[in-house]
Write a structure and sequence with these properties.
Blueprint: H1 4-10, H2 13-32, H3 40-48, H4 53-64, H5 73-110, H6 112-119, H7 127-134, H8 136-144, H9 150-158, H10 164-193, H11 199-224
Length: 231
């Protein structure tokens, strides 16, 4: 089971810190007159000038990030900025799924004892019991409701009995709503840094708000069925 009290204590700070970071960046851009360097079309044309190497490098970074314990959110936001809303989502979801799968395979076949030792004493070891009862649904749940660090949960699932194909599909589709929201937002966030609040940025903010409601909706649905959402 997850220590839900700790989750509730920490999680409210995340959106506040995110808003504070955005505010600091806007002030820095205005103070140092960096507007000319934050024109999204010019930036994307620059990246496009590298041809296929731009997406390849991005996918490689995303594939290696989870096994190397690197945070995924900055990479996701970067994908939206440099590739735009459509290709940003495409490259990010495939890259993130590949990275999650690589960490899963490392835990299952190459470093099982090491991962088990790292998870010893944590509540992540209860995942195997949940997988035995709910299968791929628990994978999708942890993607929709990111209560554990992304890189850690990937390794943890490698120790469970979930089939690889079920894990990959649940990871892909479970992360898709959040990926779309963050990439669409970041694809238009440069407008905000340049002092503009476009309708595209507003849509991105609304998408972030919608995905933030997913955990509450999911819990209510489970509660009506008399089922627990705790691990």
């Amino acid at each position: 089971m997850i220590d839900q009290s700790q989750t509730r204590k920490v999680s409210p700070l995340k959106p506040l810190l995110f808003i504070l970071l955005i505010a600091v960046i806007i002030l820095a851009v205005r103070f140092f007159h960096l507007d000319q360097y934050l024109e999204k079309e010019r930036l994307r044309q620059f990246v496009a000038g590298y041809g296929i190497w731009g997406p390849i490098v991005y996918l490689v970074i995303w594939t290696l990030a989870p096994p190397l314990f690197l945070p995924g959110l900055p990479i996701t936001l970067t994908g939206g900025v440099i590739f735009g809303p459509f290709w940003g989502v495409v490259y990010t979801i495939f890259g993130a799924t590949a990275g999650a799968t690589l960490a899963f395979l490392v835990a299952r076949y190459l470093a099982r004892d090491w991962v088990a030792g790292k998870l010893q004493g944590t509540r992540l070891l209860a995942l195997d019991e949940k997988v035995a009862r709910e299968g791929w649904e628990i994978v999708a749940f942890t993607r929709l409701v990111p209560i554990f660090p992304f890189f850690l949960i990937n390794y943890a699932f490698g120790l469970t009995r979930v089939p690889l194909l079920h894990y990959v599909l649940a990871t892909f589709f479970g992360m898709l709503p959040v990926t779309i929201a963050y990439v669409y937002f970041s694809a238009n966030v440069l407008d905000l840094f340049r002092g503009k609040f476009s309708k595209e940025l507003l849509i991105g903010v609304l998408l972030l708000a919608l995905v933030s409601l997913i955990p509450f909706v999911y819990k209510k649905i489970k509660a009506k069925k008399g089922e627990s959402v705790e691990l």
